[in-house]
Amino acid sequence: MQAKWKAALIWLVLAVAGFYLINELIVVGVINAFIENMLVTIGINIILATGLNLIIGFSGQFSLGHAGFMAIGAYATAIITQQMSNTLGFYLSLGVGMVIAMLVAVVIGIPTLRLRGDYLAIATMGAAEIIRVVINNLKITNGAAGMYNIPALANWPTVYVFVCLTTLMIVNFARSRAGRAIQAIREDEIAAEAVGINPTKWKLAAFVMGAATAAIGGSLHAVYIQTIAPSDFGIMQSISLLIIVVLGGVGSITGTFVGRNRARGAGHGVAAIWRAADGDLRLSPDFDYGVQA
Amino acid sequence: MQTFFQQVINGLSLGSIYALLALGYTMVYGIIKLINFAHGDIYMIGAFWGYYVINQYHVDFGVALVSAMAVSAILGMVIEYLAYRPLRHSPRITALITAIGVSYFLENGMSFLFGANTWNFPQVIGQARYTFFGVTITNIQLLIVAVALVLMVGLQLIVQHTRMGTAMRAVAVDQEAAELVGIDPNHIISFTFGLGSALAGAAGVLIGLYYNSIDPLMGMVPGIKAFVAAVVGGIGSIPGAAIGGFLIGLLETFVQAIGLSAYKDAAVYIVLIIILIVLPAGLLGKNVKEKV
């Protein structure tokens, strides 16, 4: 017990220290608007990728539909903050997005998680595409044009806190009884079943948990980028997240952090050079996922 | 009733294209268990090759079709040799991501070389319409279905009745055992990629003729739908892929015909999920029981 609290305390100190470090660097001016934008995008992608890593890395279920849940979170936030454009509205929308994403994950997960490997990948990809097509055709989501002028309700501290919270949530989940159960299922489903683990239940738990974090990531994406469209949440977005998870190492949380930084860092680096060559160095918040792919 | 048959005709022509693509997916998946995401882009290259030879050398349709098949086959084999062969023994997710990478490379490479805009495919065959009992068929639709059927029958003959086909089936069942009886798996896998890619190239030229427009990203969505068709038909099964392709084509046209064209992609995925739940191995796939 003692060691556990000690570890928790160390992580808390590290998280707070990290916060102050970034804060100081912004005050001093080492981190300019461009780097800050990059850090926030990194943070959002860490949230998305750790959730996907829980599904792919820990429970071994190959999901290619993460962007669909991200879309649910993003659209919940965009729609609710239109009516309530304050912080309360944002947190309310975050909760609503998470709940909807979890419900959809249950509906999708119960039938599809019986499938394995590539079949599951294709089925989840199809499910995410169905979500996207529905969003593309609804009135409330403004169709294919997407939603813009979403109030800017998240800045880097919000994202930082959420990165810490979701990582904590995922790590705790992975190290709890549930986490051991899903890792047992990943290693050998039949053996796990033989020792009394219900594979469907735990696989679904991991899937729903991943969907909830994807919705958080989507909500933050919406209020940070301030413009969303259904085309942002296509197959390519799911694949980008998959690439982050694989690059960082499947089943490793620290890996997801590093992988994220590297992919995003390289992407921004290339973009910065490109813009410099173009004589255009302004900050572009709409610069997004395409490059690292 | 006339509208119904009209939609059947349209669905069959579109389905032929999906079926040709699905055959390539199913063969490659059957033999090395890889979702070859670059397959849709080989179809795009086939269409661009058709465009190029027709505009540049003023060849007729047959030459364009055969040369596109040859070029696509070579491209498929080169991709296999450079990108997938070094990863033969690495985790499957690595090969999958490499396939996505190859797909991006081909799409963006073509966008870089030719620009991202749409190109008008030259009309080498004058369009003619035939009307039977109020149902209109164009000669191009007939040609698409006929070419697709000929190629499918040809493929079936190659796979079932030649030494190469027998070796392909042997490698698909058990690669190590095939090696023991003197089959070189690399050779066979390369041949499989060649065959599949040739069919994709043919599909590319046919779709260019049918829709009159080609662009570097044209392979993405049909590629994924063709994979869905292969899964629906039972992956690894050649007749299954053909049936799946026609089914997806018909489904898409009918969803469009009843005024839900915005949801046609969603309909394809819904059918996919339903089929996977009811028949996890697809329509004609063999259900493999897991042994402990």
Automatic annotation (TrEMBL), chain B:
<feature type="transmembrane region" description="Helical">
    <location>
        <begin position="188"/>
        <end position="211"/>
    </location>
</feature>
<feature type="transmembrane region" description="Helical">
    <location>
        <begin position="96"/>
        <end position="119"/>
    </location>
</feature>
<feature type="transmembrane region" description="Helical">
    <location>
        <begin position="37"/>
        <end position="54"/>
    </location>
</feature>
<dbReference type="InterPro" id="IPR001851">
    <property type="entry name" value="ABC_transp_permease"/>
</dbReference>
<feature type="transmembrane region" description="Helical">
    <location>
        <begin position="223"/>
        <end position="251"/>
    </location>
</feature>
<keyword id="KW-0029">Amino-acid transport</keyword>
<feature type="transmembrane region" description="Helical">
    <location>
        <begin position="61"/>
        <end position="84"/>
    </location>
</feature>
<feature type="transmembrane region" description="Helical">
    <location>
        <begin position="131"/>
        <end position="159"/>
    </location>
</feature>
<dbReference type="InterPro" id="IPR052157">
    <property type="entry name" value="BCAA_transport_permease"/>
</dbReference>
<protein>
    <submittedName>
        <fullName>Branched-chain amino acid ABC transporter permease</fullName>
    </submittedName>
</protein>
<feature type="transmembrane region" description="Helical">
    <location>
        <begin position="266"/>
        <end position="285"/>
    </location>
</feature>
<keyword id="KW-1133">Transmembrane helix</keyword>
<feature type="transmembrane region" description="Helical">
    <location>
        <begin position="12"/>
        <end position="31"/>
    </location>
</feature>
<keyword id="KW-0472">Membrane</keyword>
<comment type="similarity">
    <text>Belongs to the binding-protein-dependent transport system permease family. LivHM subfamily.</text>
</comment>
<keyword id="KW-0813">Transport</keyword>
<keyword id="KW-0997">Cell inner membrane</keyword>
<dbReference type="Pfam" id="PF02653">
    <property type="entry name" value="BPD_transp_2"/>
</dbReference>
<keyword id="KW-1003">Cell membrane</keyword>
<keyword id="KW-0812">Transmembrane</keyword>
